[in-house]
Amino acid sequence: MPFTTCRTFLISLLLTLASGATPLRVLAIGDSMTEEYAFELTFSAPASDTDNANTRSWPELFRIFRPTEVSLGPYESTAPAYGDLRIAGHEWNFGIPGMTTDNWFNLINTDDPFDPPSGEPLGYAYYETRSALIDQLSVAEAVVILLGANDLKQDYNDLFNDTEADNFFNRILNRLAAVRTFVRTYRPNVPIVLCTVPDVGATPQISGIYNDPAKQATTRAKIAAFNEDLVAWAAGLAVPPTVARIDHLTDRLFDENPFHLNGTIFTVDGSNQNPPDHVFCRDDFHVSTVGQALIANEIIGALETATGRELTPFSDREILQNLLGLDPDQPYLDWIAAAGLAGSGMDEDPDHDGLPNLVEQLLGTSPGDFSEPFAGSFAPGSSLSWQPDPTALRYATLTAEESGNLMDWLPVPAARTNVAPDGTVSVTPATAERGFVRLNAVPR
Questions:
Q1: Which residues touch 310 (CB under 8 Å, ≥6 apart)?
Q2: Does residue 240 surpass a pLDDT of 50?
Q3: How far apart are CA 290 and CA 328, in angstroms?
Q4: Confidence band for 122, pLDDT divided at 50, 70 and 90
Q5: Long-range contacts of residues 43-46, Cβ cutoff 8 Å, at least 24 apart
Q6: Residue 186: its H or E element
Q7: Given this model, what pLDDT does residue 55 score?
Q8: Domains, the chain, ordered by start
Q9: Following DSSP, what letter does each residue of 274-296 receive, concatenated?
Q10: What percent of the chain is helix, strand and coil (3-state, nearest 5)?
Q11: pLDDT tens track for 357-385
């Protein structure tokens, strides 16, 4: 290669590396929540087409929708591809179905191919998997550890009935610590993302059986306390891993009723066909694409913190439209159709009352009949009030903006905005000769 060409190539390569243009190389250690759903067909494929998954796990979402930002390695689509416990999929993805933290502890400590751990059904492949893991750690720029759900599932009956061993949670924490130490042994400085443990009591498979409200609350509190202990332990390490709060998703499943993204309501229970608007796959235990996208967002945030790389989370609208094939504006379309005005746009004002349709939706007024939703006035010594519809606010935001000249608009400061317990919003004007206020409605 001529010198000039060689120099140009090297400069180009250095600029590419410096700009972070290459995807972040991520190695994952996990279970079936992390394995590619393409190889989990017993639950990831619809009953009508059991050979083709129609749900995706977070590594698959990265490959399909963030290929220039994150990579879990070359992809092998045909099994068996690796000669160890991985069926196929990404080369740096060690998401192995059924694995508990105990299984992983035994795996990382299996250093003799002729002496697999007794009583482990998959132990014969532990050594090969461990060797492959060590090899692949050498190329990783970050490591994600997502384990523990199977531990909780395995002993949930005891947890629910307060008969678990006294050291049950400590043992999980110690085994997670051992996996983290194993990674550090071979890659002392690699950024590690450690995920909290999802509360499997939020899954329909378990909540349908263990449904005593008092015991549910007690069990949930124990698992939440363990996750807080996990966070505190991680923070106390000399080189702390970054924690991804996967338990935030199960908190939402417990507390958000109905579960929704931007007002699009999801059915929590799974269904035989794995429809896109269900949170769980048809086995009622593994989250479907929407849940995996929310898991991906927690991991993306933790990876950004751990590595300093800028990564793009999945917005709710992207999840609805691109990942699930749903119309993110369906809440508006349903509302305007129910008003007998199907096809009328958000900015239109068919009843000529000065309130565009989207504002009418957020105020809970009719788009076809003249409305007077405001009380008071935007004048010195007074205030202007309105009461938004809480259901409509799931879909769009309603912001009060003010201006002194009807050209330059800014949000009314929080100091002059009051929200009453019933949701009524009141704003007072600034001390000026004149002022105007308007409501700005924007889909989330």
A1: 20, 304
A2: yes
A3: 13
A4: confident
A5: 43/270, 43/281, 43/282, 43/283, 43/285, 43/286, 44/274, 44/281, 44/286, 45/274, 46/272, 46/273, 46/274, 46/282
A6: helix 168-186
A7: 98
A8: 19-323 (3.40.50.1110), 332-443 (2.60.40)
A9: --TTBSB-TTSSSB-HHHHHHHH
A10: 40, 15, 45
A11: 999 999 999 999 999 999 998 888 899 99
What HEC string does 346-399 produce? CCCCCCCCCCCHHHHHHHCCCCCCCCCCCEECCCCCCCEEECCCCCHHHCEEEE
Q: What is the pTM of this model?
A: 0.91
Task: State how beta strands 384-386 and 425-427 pair.
Answer: antiparallel
Return d(Cα 332, Cα 392) in angstroms, integer: 9
Residues 344, 357 contacting (CB under 8 angstroms): yes
Residues 12-64 have pLDDT tens digits of 444 444 445 799 999 999 999 999 999 999 999 999 999 999 999 999 999 99
Q: How far apart are CA 403 and CA 180, in angstroms?
A: 55
Pair of tokens at residue 212: 């005593």
Return all residues near 119 (Cβ < 8 A) that are at least 6 apart.
Answer: none
Q: Which tokens go with 295?
A: 């898991």
- Dist. CA 306–CA 325, nearest whole Å: 32
Residues linked to residue 29 through DSSP beta bridges, in sequence order: 94, 145
State how far the Cα of 165 lies from the Cα of 179, in Å rounded to an integer: 22
- Check if the beta carbon of residue 92 is closer than 8 Å to that of residue 82: no
Place of tokens 């939020």: 202
- The average pLDDT across 278-305 equals 98
**What pLDDT score does 381 carry?**
84
DSSP assignment letter at 113 = T
Tokens of 139: 């190329």
Tokens, residue 289? 């694409």
Which uninterrupted H or E stretch holds 195? Answer: strand 192-195
